[in-house]
Here is the input.
Amino acid sequence: MKRIDELKAFLRRTAEHGAALAFSGGVDSSLLLAMLKEIHDESPFPLAALTMRTVFQAAEELSEIRRLAAETGVELQVFHCDPLELPEVRDNPPDRCYWCKRHIFTEFLNFCRTNGLGTLFDGTNADDLKVYRPGLRALRELGVVSPLAELGFTKAEIRQIARERGLDCASKPSQPCLATRFEYGTRLRPDLLESVQRGEALIRQLTPPGTDVRLRVHLQSVPAARIEVSPDAMEILFRHRKALAAALHELGFQFITLDLEGFRSGCYDQKKEKKTS
Here is the structure.
């Protein structure tokens, strides 16, 4: 059996009593939404895509999520919450993601119960299980089903299938929560999150499409920004260093550095020796 057929068979079995997908607009959940729509069209069942608008998302993400859902023809339900109201999130402890996901997915599950949707899916993949992701504990506790992880689909495999099926998100870089740009223990504030979002948007304007960008923030004495990009994008940023530095200064960062090790999917925490995106 082909891998894509294996995935569709799994979805048929688990979605027959109605299903909802936590939809982020990334390649993982986009592939799942496309597969769910295919099996829905073959044998209809109640289906919805759910997304949560929070301060941890870049401003343009919601419009992109709406566009992608509309292209598949699946109804999108948009929820709104402020995770910073939770001290377990606002104070940015190492298990911040657990509390945030538990809050968000509880809202999703309440919607599913009210609307007769028997299964809630999410886009966790097999690679996610190999790194420190405390939010996965919340998904397990709440009974959220992660088909890609359960069937062992890696990120590279998901991207390949997405390319083969013509999904325009196949090469889309990962866009993890903006809170991951801060060291654990840094109190999260809306203005800091907005500065990071705007700073990364500036950097993406200077780099090729699909470039992974992280603007890591350090606040020990004064606000400092550490830029992580792939090595091939460093030279481009260096050529524009004066204009970029001036723009980041205006966002409140007093010191700006370009990390010579380049982009790394992870924010290292010395105390926990764990990694997050």
About this structure: The chain is about 45% helix and 15% strand. The first helix runs from residue 3 to 15.
